[in-house]
Design brief:
5-stranded antiparallel β-sheet, 1 helix, 52% strand, single chain, mainly beta, 3 domains, 277 residues
């Protein structure tokens, strides 16, 4: 017996203690050798759908993780064509009626994950909703139905940083450029921030190629430690040291030439006046 669900609500099945069941989740009960007269004792309640998936099918897959058998739960309204657990990722192939919205909510034991979670749909990185408790990660993603390969991977993204110069004068600007990627695939549409001496000064979003750019003017002398941080994926770039010095003074020779020129002009003027007189 299975209760239906929308994105926000589902039907929970309440089984009295005297009714024997072979297996039970919140919205599905499997009976074995049931006395059908006991069905009248079942109760049903509308509760919040914490998974956020309508018409959900629950797939519980047991895998050996960190030396123990643990369950990975995939809750989806798609047909699950394939599921594969590997050292650095989970791969799923899903299918659904074209034009409709598919959703997947996965529960993954923390022992399985090393680094941060990155989600691919058909080899493109997407931005999922990720939450956690003390023991598990919860990964939620939506997509337009078709046949899709979804990869839930974990690792450390790469955040690069280059500067147009490491030495400038007061009032001059430096351009900071770089990119955010994972295993060579650009991560697009993600916030990154420029930090100077551990203080955030500017933010932007990575473009379609995973690239970003900042231009910042330094108004005071000193040495500055600069880096770029992506809080979404808990990664930061290497530090670039910038030295800012005072503007150079005009050469003394120029002052001397200016004085000489003035003297020559004055002398010429005096001589001309004497000739006239």
């Amino acid at each position: 017996i299975e209760g239906g669900s929308s994105e926000s609500e589902l039907i929970e099945i309440i089984v009295p203690p005297h009714v024997h069941v072979a297996e039970k989740t919140r919205h599905r009960v499997t009976f074995k050798g049931i006395n059908f007269n006991e069905l009248k004792d079942l109760a049903f309640k509308v509760v919040r759908n914490a998974w956020g998936v309508a018409d959900a099918n629950i797939h519980e897959i047991e895998e050996l993780i960190a030396g123990k058998k643990r369950k990975i739960i995939a809750i989806t309204n798609s047909t699950l064509r394939r599921f594969q657990f590997l050292v650095d990722r989970i791969e799923l192939e899903v299918e659904g009626p074209e034009g409709t919205i598919g959703a997947l909510n996965m529960t993954i034991p923390k022992e399985a994950v090393s680094g941060v979670i990155i989600v691919y749909i058909d080899k493109s990185i997407v931005t999922p909703t990720i939450s956690m408790n003390a023991t598990h990660y919860f990964v939620f993603v939506k997509y337009t139905h078709s046949i899709h390969t979804i990869q839930v991977k974990w690792g450390i993204p790469q955040l690069s940083l280059a500067v147009s110069s490491n030495k400038v004068h007061v009032g001059e600007s430096i351009t900071f450029t770089g990119s955010l990627s994972f295993e060579g695939t650009p991560i697009t549409g993600v916030d990154v921030s420029l930090y100077i001496n551990d203080e955030p000064v500017e933010s932007t979003v990575t473009n379609i190629n995973g690239e970003y750019s900042f231009t910042y003017a330094f108004m005071n002398e000193g040495t500055y430690e600069c880096k770029v941080v992506c809080e979404t994926y808990e990664v930061e770039s290497e530090v670039q040291t910038i030295k800012v010095s005072a503007p150079p003074s005009p050469p003394v020779m120029l002052y001397g030439l200016a004085i000489v020129a003035v003297v020559i002009i004055l002398v010429a003027a005096v001589l001309m006046l004497r000739r006239k007189s």
